Amino acid sequence: MRVERSNKNQEDPYLPRMRESIEKVEATREERIDQEVEPLDPKTRDKVLNEFHPDYIESAFREVNVGPNAGEMMPKELVDLLEAYPKYDPSEVNLAKVEKEVDVLIIGGGGAGNIAAYWAVQEGLDPSDILIATKLRNGDSNSVMSQGGVQAADREEDSPVQHYLDIMGGGHYANKPDLVETLVRDAPKMIEWHEDLGVIYDKDGDGAMKELHGGGTSRKRLHSAKDYTGLEIVRVVRDEVRNMAIPVKEFAPAVELLTDADGTVTGALLFNMETDKYSVVKAKSVILATGGFGRLHIQDFPTTNHYGATADGLILGYRAGANMLDMDTVQYHPTGAAYPQQIMGLLVTEKVRSSGAYPVNSEGEFFTFNLEPRDVEASMLIRECRDVEHGGRDNGVETPGGITGVWLDTPMIDMKHGEGTFEKNLEYIYRLYTRFGIDPTEDPILVYPTLHYQNGGIEIDNDGHTAVEGLLAAGEVEGGVHGKNRLMGNSIMDYNVFGRRAGIAAARRAKGESEWGEVSLEHVERYVDKLRESDVDMQKRSPMLIPDYRGERTQGRTLDLLDPS
Amino acid sequence: MSPSNEDQETVRIHIMGKEYEVPKGLTMMDAIEHSGYRLIRGVGCRGGFCGACATLYRLEGDYKLYADLACQKTVEDGMYLMQLPFTPAGRKTYDIEEIGRDGNPLLENYPEVARCVSCNTCTKACPQDLEVMDFINEAIRGNIENVASMSFDCIQCGICAARCPAEIPHHHVAQMARRVYGKHNLPKSDHVAARVREIEGGEFDESLQEITSLSREVLEERYESREIE
Fold first, then answer.
1. A558 in a structural domain
2. Contact: B224, A156; criterion CB under 8 Å
């Protein structure tokens, strides 16, 4: 009784030249199916990263002139927003009129924000003394988009020590060891908490978790809920936050933090995006849980990220004096959809490779181990696609959208594990492609790296405190956990572990403060003065809040990603 | 093939009743933005996970009212789009510890499920192609496990609830079912619980202290020589 929903018309969804290449892929599949490719040795790995990873393109970065990270290199698109005029209109802001006084103000309604709110209540706060203020709807976030799984070392063959080692190696040893230790120690406890709340993980009949490898893991440690893992976790936690009646203000992003004379964060200035009205919220603790920066389209990459991933929290926190870590690296997920153009840049979960699919070039050949750490895997894909003149191997398949991709040989999964495996375990991906007439169990899919994650962020301690008194941070906005490269399955765990810890720490701090502080925007004025003194050419206003895709800027526009200049 | 090319094929669509011409091949969401709108409502993850961009549409010359996600559906010539960014639907507050121990919590909390007239409009409207009417029938019968598994891919866009003549909030019923099932029926993992107790008992304190104090060189050596399962 279902209606035909597919965007499909009767023709082959692949162009003739793509179909020719698919025939080569099909011709080699039988003999490839039992082959394995060895991971790269350390030396080759470094060489490939150096030559092909977008982080090594110097012209894509520029130095920050003011603030705690002055002198450091960051993506130009981010620096443009750090060195920008504030967005708020001073003539419309009245700080004397306080709308609400709360113990804990949480800015952001994704995984970290909801989890922080839950644990602040467990720490003894009355739900009505908390406020989640979020830019779009509660739950709209990158958190719900993570598909493949979440890491926790809870099998007998595994240990927190092994998890620690994988994270440090994957992050190129730049990670803050104490944060990594905290993550691996807390991880199994968070999974147990999820079970207690009613999260439906993929399990065997006796309750044992079905766990898989991810890129860069030395043990099978990925817990999944089909390929809707993030969605399942967040919708369950949010459901409980609703049961607890924790107040949420939607479509009301913070546009600045508020501080007292000592620079302590004492609240935030919220902006109702629909009525253009500002409101002042005083808080004894403020948690930044605003997520990442994929929508800045760094180096013109398409992104897997949510519409609201515009680095707002970084901008607000930085103006208030919070320093950032590891902002010189950006995570490009190796397998973004390269075709059809309507879904370009969307995530094809690493679980597809964990389940046995390999990247294959236009000639039907393997060219990489399928589960390198993400930065390495992405670099290998870029090398395979780039032309020979620019050091590449020119074995990609060109798409009409302007990008070149390689095949991800998805039919291998059912061949290895039996018919129906793909559809059962990778339902999102199956749905994503069949909508456009492509059956990933029959035909391979075209992929190319896509902007996925902000590896770094605002520095925190084990309890989520930033360098600024009164300000905490949790989730993708904070940095230090992942070093220069995050492994699959550690972002969900990051927003769980540090969301919980920030919620508890914020509640404790609030209980120790008898009065609300004074609120001012002086720190912003001081920051702008410094920018003026440094002769920075300020073109923009920030935070960005939402990207602008109007008219010719439509995100479905052509992106030339393969120009290495 | 840039949408801005002059020789680009175009289609005519109506956005909330107003006509626009847009390049062929855009998603509904891209088409709305291409027409000059900067979205605040009716947009979210842009990847088919969040349900914010529920959109109803009619096609010229066709009486039917279709539904889909604006970020996942390509525009067609003669489409009339009606954005549905919010659907009011009553949600029941409940105690997860107590609920579902006996009786049929779905029917008790959402007695309106019994008003289902089996019209199947919910199923036809579901952008995830879920068998919505069938899981509502499972809810009436109290078969919580079936409701949980059949509704697992629900993104809570609320189109079903907006279209239902019996005024059932299907997505809330399904959320309750999944949590009750996950909490009370799905067996807990013994190895997770065991590992939590081991960590709390200090079993890994020594080895973690050792590894966190290693120099970068030694740590790197250990990483490069680690055995992969």
1. no
2. no
Confidence of residue B6 (pLDDT cuts 50, 70, 90): low
Peptide bond into A247 cis (omega under 30): no
Q: How far off is chain B from A194, nearest CA to CA, in Å?
A: 9
Alpha-carbon distance B127 to B129, whole Å? 5
Q: Is A69 helix (H, G, I), strand (E, B) or coil?
A: coil
Q: What is the CATH number of the domain that holds A215?
A: 3.50.50.60
Compare CB distances from A145 to B47, B153, B180 and report the shortest one's residue: B47
Structure ipTM over 0.85, yes or no = yes
- β-pair partners for B57: B66, B81
Give yes or no: residues A199 and A149 share one domain. yes
Q: Which residues of B touch A181 (CB under 8 A)?
A: 208, 212
- pLDDT of A124-166, one tens digit each? 999 999 999 999 999 999 999 999 999 999 999 999 999 999 9
d(CA B44, CA A305): 10
Domains of chain B by range and CATH?
10-83 (3.10.20.740), 105-185 (1.10.1060.10), 190-224 (no CATH)
Of B123, B152, B175, nearest to A1 by CB-CB distance is B123
Looking at beta carbons, which residues of chain A come within 8 Å of B7?
A: none
pLDDT tens-digit map of B93-145: 999 999 988 899 999 999 999 999 999 999 999 999 999 999 999 999 999 99
Domain enclosing residue A406, as ranges: 16-55+334-452
CA A309/CA A526 separation, integer angstroms:
27
Query: Residue B1 and residue A402: Cβ atoms within 8 Å?
Result: yes
Residue A47: CATH number of its domain = 3.90.700.10
Q: Do A373 and A432 fall into the same domain?
A: yes
Number of domains chain A is built from: 2
- If asked whether residues A494 and A436 sit together in one domain, one would say no
**Residue A175 bridge partners (DSSP):** none
Q: Which two tokens stand for residue A514?
A: 């008898």
All residues of chain B having their beta carbon less than 8 Å from the beta carbon of residue A207 are 186-190
Which are the catalytic amino acids of A? 333, 353
What pTM was computed for the model?
A: 0.96
> Is A241 among the domain residues?
yes
> CA of A230: how far to CAs of A135, A155, A288, A404, A457, in Å?
19, 21, 20, 29, 21
User: Is the Cα dihedral A423, A489, A466, A103 positive or negative?
Assistant: positive
Are A135 and A254 a contacting pair, CB within 8 Å?
no
For B57-94, b where at least 16 C-beta lie within 10 A, e where not — what string?
Answer: bbeeeeeeebbbbbbbbbbbeebbbebbbebebebbeb
Contact predicate A330/A298, CB 8 Å:
yes
Does A544 fall in a domain?
A: no
**Contact between B199 and A188 using a beta-carbon 8 Å cutoff:** yes
- C-alpha span between A376 and A389 (Å, rounded): 21
Decide if A219 and B229 are in contact by the 8 Å CB cutoff: yes
Residue A137 falls inside a structural domain:
yes
* Nearest residue of chain A to residue B211 (CA atoms): A161
For residue A167, how many C-alpha atoms fall within 13 Å in the half-sphere facing its CB? 34
